[in-house]
Amino acid sequence: MRPLRYLAAISLSAVAVLGNCLPAHAVAPASAPTAARQLTLPSSPERQLYATPESAPQSASNEYPFNRGFCGVYELAGAVDTATDDVHATLYAKIPIIGRVRLTELSGNLDQGITRDVNAVVAKGTFSLWVDANRKVWAQTAMDLKFIGRTDCKAPILTLP
Asked: Does 42 reside within a domain?
């Protein structure tokens, strides 16, 4: 029980320090009871934090940003232009011990399908990306990954609006 109270005190101290950096409506007033003080940030898109720059919203209204993991090992981050179905993305793999590794960058039209040969230090094989008639984007991999082995996987990534 004691470590939890200590952790709560540290969290409230951090909120007090960060309070100077955040907008006034992001931190509960000091008069609020200690249990009710919570850090809440506004939900407007321009104030949201994103794990990678590729997942941040783009300026064009037709851009649909995404950052999705699939098949337990891979991550695809980028953006799709929903008017033309053009995509610009980066494929990553999460390798044990090594961590997140960039395998390839790709761009092209989803209607025509995109296939890339991957020849990285930790991965060798192919990656394909396409959209079906229901506007669902699919990814398929056939790769040998170091420390993992062979991965043959086909998975839906996202559904376009």
From this structure: no
The SS3 of residue 63 is strand
Q: What is the mean pLDDT of residues 50-60?
A: 47
pLDDT over 90 at 155, yes or no: yes
Distance CA 20, CA 105 (A): 40
Q: Which residues contact 112 (CB under 8 A, 6 or more apart)?
A: none
User: 29 pLDDT band (50/70/90 cuts)?
Assistant: very low
Could you tell me the two tokens for 21? 């950096």
Which residues sit opposite 140 in a β-bridge?
Answer: 128, 154
**Would residue 70 count as lying in a domain?**
yes
Structural domain of 62: 50-159
Asked if 80 and 66 count as a contact pair (C-beta separation under 8 A), the reply is yes
pTM: 0.61
Looking up residue 108, the CATH number of its domain turns out to be: 2.40.160
**What mean pLDDT do residues 106-125 have?**
94
Residue 68: which of 150, 129, 110 has the closest Cα?
129
